[in-house]
TrEMBL record:
Residues 8-81 form the Cation-transporting P-type ATPase N-terminal domain. This is P-type Ca(2+) transporter. The chain crosses the membrane at residues 61-79, 249-268, 280-303, 683-704, 710-734, 755-776, 782-800, 821-839, 859-880. It is found in: Cell membrane. Its main location: membrane. It comes from Anaerocolumna aminovalerica.
């Protein structure tokens, strides 16, 4: 049944809607929900179907590089070289199949990651709040909405408290819409004016609400907007564009070199058909057919590995950027710490007089004295115990610590809320840094307020003592601040509480009740640092990555935690949000260079910090979890959302989600990003050096009017059999032990100068060995020379693949079986080569002659020479680098 179109929900009272949907304010039973899920389907928009194999094949055939290869095959047939043309088409077909398989694997990886980022919703099931996948919502479910969440379905509101929802995706209205569950509207009311409705995929920016699901999946309003469904092409990454551009450039170069070779051959009056086939062979050798596809699968595999370690990459380009991060701006709570707040110190008026807080265990012995403070903390609170996980908290950990505290003092949170029902709420926001509720206490409304000490004291006019309320004095305020600073110096988070009795409950949801309050007391709670984070921060430091803590906590608390974690070092600066507000852009630029801790910072100030860091040339990763963190996450080079505590808004704005909210997971992701980046460079270096060797081999032979050392089919086979498999294996090479010991490489420097030099020199080494083998075999006849050249260049590249695992360390520094995929790929490629040369029918297809034992020994020796030269090159570089470092260090000591 299409509920969306059968009833104007905004024009009906709640009772009628519940009757229509056969539900109640107690929600659905699990059995009924399962039946409805089967009837209505999952709560998801219909996804754009993945491309078919035929569509992928067409994409392959449209590739300029493939067009040239097909053209070469056709030309072979025209020139009566049917065997060569057939082999070219066969190898092109195999290459296309491999590319399609790779792309299918990449699509499957991304589909799996999409499932991992599916949102969740809090709904009433069996009369209790349950955190369930949003995809399992059905019409009739009772759903809870809160600040920062994404509306999971079309919902008719039953209750709302200062609720505002950003509906720009549906209405185009940039200003959040204010919601009022009690209104009943005209049937003709437009979508943007339906203040008693919340629509799927819109964002809650303020307040709280409860509603009944009236439509899910494609029956929602957003389900009608087709262009919103799967509009992003996940494979069109900057890296792939860059590699495709390189491929096109090499294709053009290939055509130019073809013309040049043809001109040289024509000058030498060589036979036209062999000359043409030689030119085609050279063009083929230049084209790195598998480079973009190989890089894509390396990226996709890297994303899968990150997901297994708790880092879900939402946008593939983030993998490239991660390896170049220079600064990680991290929230404190939950990321650097355990996010398990525990109240350890308490202070009320009697303690204020002494100037010292009392440990919680000591306060438990004086239960009655602390009752007002304990009650305020439990009632001005939106957290609750999770009925499905005893001991766990649903809601903010800070608020959770307060209800655990009330439990320790013998107050059952559920009973307290039942005895003192909530009548009104003024929600917390990042500007006021306060939250207030009005509860019925003894038949009268009482305001309870909690907040940061600096924000609460100014709205207090009285203090609660054992004798009752009295005006608060400057001495009281001084003593309260002294106690607060003492708690903060112990790395405690400090919350202040106040109350006042009122005559009537405000009718306006936006009414301000935070004035003329009576100060009750303070609580100090600690969220201890994660044990593993200190080591992760040191890893970042060694890797040239600066860690910056950004927190809303007090300066003293923030610095205490930062010192414990080694984030703050001697000479570092610390700024608060108020100090940042007084800075110009130039001051910001200077400040961010030395600041390791930002305290009392608002989400809006996070954005300015990110912008300043980027202006100074840093590659910035920024963590966030709140609604207002979204601009900073968007602005950062890598926006990182928290998977556990993060709002849907933050997750939508991010490039990466860490599922455990742990800083070490970010560091692991950076390490994996560097691994992916370096492995792609290894693949590029391996493939292009092989192509350079083929180009030089044929070009030099043609330039000096020698016969072609390699035929087109030989080159195609090398590119398929001895290039593709080792290249893929290099793409999954384990990270080097010192991958986090080097300074980060800035994004966009994939083709570094050193890489280009290595590609050319290593290509020359292989070409030289190939030409020597060719001339040795040519003493017998041309097929022998071509067979020796073919085997030498193929086996050279197989041996050479092992030296590509590190550009600085010896080939012997890594175990032979450390990269099992490379070991297997080299064995398979070598076996395929032997099949070609040893089995007579196959050997004839490739126009090769048989080789005797002496020739095989020469091939083996010559094939090892390029690898040996590369290892000598590494040793020389290592010696020069070490000597240069010693001279610099000695010079510094001398100074």
């Amino acid at each position: 049944m299409d509920y969306r179109s059968t009833m104007p929900w905004h024009a009906k009272p709640a009772e009628e809607i519940c009757k229509e949907l056969k539900t109640s304010t107690e929600g659905l039973s699990d059995a009924e929900a399962a039946l409805r899920l089967k009837a209505h389907g999952i709560n998801e928009l219909r996804k754009k179907e993945n491309r078919t194999i035929l569509q992928m094949l067409w994409e392959q055939l449209k590739d300029p590089m493939i067009i040239i290869l097909i053209g070469a095959a056709i030309l072979s047939f025209v020139l009566h070289e049917a065997l060569e043309g057939g082999v070219i088409l066969f190898i092109v077909s195999v290459n296309a199949v491999i590319s399609i398989i790779q792309e299918k694997k990449a699509e499957a990886s991304l589909d799996a990651l999409k499932k991992m980022t599916t949102g969740r919703a809090v709904a009433l099931r069996q009369g209790e709040e349950s955190n369930i996948p949003a995809s399992e919502l059905v019409p009739g479910d009772i759903v809870f909405l809160e600040d920062g969440s994404m509306v999971p379905a079309d919902i008719r509101l039953l209750d709302s408290s200062s609720l505002k929802i950003q509906e720009a995706s549906l209405t185009g209205e940039a200003i959040p819409s204010e919601k009022d569950a009690d209104k009943i509207l005209d049937e003709s009311c437009s979508l943007g004016d339906r203040s008693n409705m919340a629509y799927s995929s819109t964002l809650v920016t303020y307040g709280r609400g409860v509603g009944i699901v009236v439509a899910t999946g494609m029956n929602t309003e957003v389900g009608q907007i087709a262009h919103m469904i799967d509009s992003q092409n996940e494979f069109d990454t900057p890296l792939k564009k860059k590699l495709t551009s390189v491929g096109k450039t090499l294709t053009i170069v290939g055509l130019v070199v073809c013309a040049l070779i043809f001109a040289i051959g024509f000058f030498y009056k060589q036979p036209l058909i062999p000359l043409l086939m030689t030119a085609i062979s050279l063009a083929i050798s230049i084209i790195p057919e598998g480079l973009p596809a190989t890089a894509t699968i390396v990226l996709a595999l890297g994303v899968q590995r990150m997901a297994k370690r708790g880092a879900i990459i939402r946008k593939l380009p983030a993998v490239e950027t991660l390896g170049g991060a220079t600064v990680i701006c991290s929230d404190k709570t939950g990321t650097l710490t355990l996010n398990k707040m525990t109240v350890t110190q308490i202070a009320i008026a009697s303690d204020v007089g002494s100037g010292k807080a009392r440990p919680t265990q000591s306060a438990l012995k004086m239960n009655g004295s602390y009752y007002e403070l304990i009650r305020a903390g439990a009632l001005c609170n939106n957290a609750e115990f999770d009925p499905d996980n005893p001991g766990s908290i649903l809601g903010d950990p800070t608020e959770g610590a307060l209800i655990v505290l009330s439990q320790k003092f013998g107050e059952d949170h559920g009973d307290l809320e039942e005895d003192c029902p909530r009548l009104f709420e003024q929600p917390f926001d990042s500007h006021r840094k306060r939250m207030s509720t009005i509860n019925e206490v003894g038949g009268k409304p009482v305001v309870f307020t909690k907040g940061a000490i600096d924000e609460l004291i100014p709205v207090c006019t009285k203090i609660l003592t054992a004798e009752g309320e009295r005006p608060i004095t400057d001495e009281d305020i001084e003593s309260v601040r002294r106690i607060s600073d003492g708690m903060a110096s112990d790395a405690l988070r400090v919350l202040a509480f106040a109350k006042k009795s009122i005559d009537t409950v405000p009718e306006d949801d936006d009414a301000d009740v935070e004035f003329g309050l009576t100060f009750i007391g303070l609580v100090g709670m600690i969220d201890p640092p994660r044990e593993e984070v200190k080591a992760a921060i040191k890893t970042c430091w060694d890797a040239g990555i600066r860690t910056v803590m950004i927190t809303g906590d007090h300066r003293i608390t923030a610095v205490a935690i930062a010192k414990e974690l080694d984030i703050w070092h001697k000479g570092d600066t610390v700024y608060t949000g108020d100090e940042l507000d007084e800075m110009s852009d130039n001051d910001y630029n200077n400040a961010v260079r030395t600041t390791s801790v930002y305290a009392r910072v608002t989400p809006e100030q996070k954005l300015k910090i990110v912008e300043a860091l980027k202006r100074t040339g840093e590659i910035v990763s920024m963590t966030g979890d709140g609604v207002n963190d979204a601009p900073a996450l968007k602005a950062a080079d890598i926006g990182i959302a928290m998977g556990l505590s993060g709002t849907d808004v933050a997750k939508e704005a991010s490039d990466m989600i860490i599922t455990d909210d742990n800083f070490t997971t970010i560091v692991d992701a950076v390490k994996e990003g560097r691994r992916v980046y370096r492995n792609i460079q290894k693949v590029i270096q391996f493939l292009l050096a092989g192509n350079i060797s083929e180009i030089l081999t044929i070009f030099i032979a043609t330039l000096f009017n020698f016969p072609a050392p390699l035929l087109a089919v030989h080159i195609l086979w090398i590119n398929l059999a001895t290039d593709t498999l080792p290249a893929l294996a290099l793409g999954v090479d384990p990270p080097e032990a010192d991958v986090m010991k080097h300074k980060p490489k800035k994004s966009g420097t994939l083709f570094e100068k050193a890489l280009v030099i290595r590609v050319i020199t290593q290509g020359c080494f292989i070409a030289a060995a190939t030409l020597i083998a060719f001339f040795i075999g040519l003493r017998d006849d041309l097929p022998s020379g071509q067979a020796m050249a073919f085997c030498t260049i193929a086996f050279s590249q197989l041996f050479y693949s092992y030296s590509q695992r590190s550009n600085t360390k010896s080939i012997f520094s890594k175990g032979l079986f450390e990269n099992k995929a490379l070991f297997v790929s080299v064995l398979v490629s070598a076996a395929l080569m032997l099949v070609l040369v040893v089995i007579p029918p196959v050997r004839e297809v490739f126009a090769l002659s048989s080789l005797d034992a002496d020739e095989w020994l020469m091939i083996l020796g010559l094939s090892l020479i390029p690898t040996a030269l590369i290892e000598i090159q590494k040793a020389i570089w290592h010696f020069v680098s070490k000597y240069s470092h010693r001279r610099q260090t000695g010079g510094q000591h001398a100074r």
